[in-house]
Automatic annotation (TrEMBL):
Domain HTH lysR-type: 3-60
The protein's name: HTH lysR-type domain-containing protein
Transmembrane segments: none
PANTHER family: HTH-TYPE TRANSCRIPTIONAL REGULATOR, HTH-TYPE TRANSCRIPTIONAL REGULATOR CYSL
Origin organism lineage: Bacteria, Bacillati, Actinomycetota, Actinomycetes, Pseudonocardiales
Keyword DNA-binding appears in the UniProt entry: yes
Transcription regulation found in the keyword field: yes
Highest rank taxon of the organism: Bacteria
Species per Swiss-Prot/TrEMBL record: Kutzneria albida DSM 43870
GO molecular function: DNA-binding transcription factor activity; transcription cis-regulatory region binding
Family to which the UniProt record says this protein belongs: Belongs to the LysR transcriptional regulatory family.
InterPro entries found in the cross-reference section: LysR_HTH_N (IPR000847), LysR_subst-bd (IPR005119), WH-like_DNA-bd_sf (IPR036388), WH_DNA-bd_sf (IPR036390)
Keyword field: DNA-binding, Transcription, Transcription regulation
Length: 297
């Protein structure tokens, strides 16, 4: 008959601890029960596995070989259980969401919190990436709903505006742009090396579209992969940047950064939810979209 796993664990513990009593204690069973379980294991295998004396328990030569095999079996079982748990967790992620960084940092937490209050049993898997990467995840069917900052959404995806955001040029209070009376125009902004987000981000695409008629464009001062990194570089004195008002609202209110008006360019943008085209959203994805588009005071 096939040995049970508990008996194999007992054998391994006897080998490691050198005592049947200590092995029984480790498993939380009485010593007579452990002794009976070990005897049953020996009977099933037809081998004497352990020599028991007053000084403790030691493995016989066959016992050492069987114990090595038992360790392998238990290791494989642990791998099976760990893998099954991972599959369960993936299966239990009933709503798969991806969001671009500005949305993920400043809007999605509130939306998801509101959804979870009404659906506490719902498990949400959230992936954070730039807008291009979010759109790719949607195309590949890896997420149910995405939130992006890019000015356009590909035709094969359905979309809906969930919020309106505005980018703002920000500098340190000591920067010359913060003190001068004459406004900065689009040409000067375009000719100035800026701290910018990486290509593929909605913030970068919005800025590039706003300055698309300006031919003399400076190379970026720094290209960074997150809004937080861009903000930190500006505060550290690297140079001007163009960021979402959502990301710098506190800095502007507390005077760490100063906004610079640039007449003649439109830095507003629409934040959108997107999902595979030709498909009506249902279930948790539809509920999250309803939360995101609900009017706010």
């Amino acid at each position: 008959m096939t040995p049970d796993l508990d008996s194999l664990r007992l054998l391994v513990l006897v080998a490691e601890l050198g005592s049947l009593g200590r092995a029984a204690e480790e498993l939380g069973i009485a010593q007579p029960s452990a002794s009976k379980r070990l005897a049953t294991l020996e009977r099933r295998l037809g081998l004497a596995l352990v020599d028991r004396t007053r000084r403790g328990s030691t493995l016989t030569e066959p016992g050492q070989v069987v114990t090595d095999w038992a360790r392998r079996v238990l290791h494989e079982v642990d791998g099976l259980l760990t893998g099954a748990q991972a599959l369960r967790e993936r299966q239990d992620a009933q709503l798969r969401v991806a969001a671009s960084l500005t949305v993920a940092e400043h809007l999605a937490p509130g939306w998801l919190g509101e959804l979870r209050r009404s659906r506490p049993e719902l498990h949400v898997g959230l992936r954070v990436a730039n807008s291009d990467a979010v759109l790719d995840l949607l195309r590949r069917g890896e997420v149910d709903l995405g939130f992006v900052e890019s000015p356009t959404v590909p035709r094969e995806l359905a979309s809906r505006v969930v919020a309106v955001d505005r980018l703002v040029v920000v500098v340190l209070p000591e920067h010359p742009w913060a003190r001068r009376r004459r406004p900065v125009d689009a040409g000067e902004l375009a000719a100035t090396p800026l701290v910018v987000r990486e290509p593929g981000s909605g913030t970068r695409e919005t800025l590039d579209r706003a300055l698309r008629r300006v031919t003399a464009r400076a190379e970026p001062l720094l290209e960074l992969g997150s809004t937080t990194a861009v903000r930190g570089a500006v505060i550290a004195g690297a140079g001007p940047a163009v960021l979402s008002e959502l990301a710098v609202a506190t800095d502007l209110a507390e005077g760490r950064l100063v906004p610079v008006e640039v007449p003649g360019i439109d830095l507003r943008r629409r934040l959108r939810a997107a999902w595979p085209g030709g498909r009506r959203l249902v279930g948790p994805a539809a509920e999250l979209l309803a939360v995101a588009t609900r009017p706010r005071r």
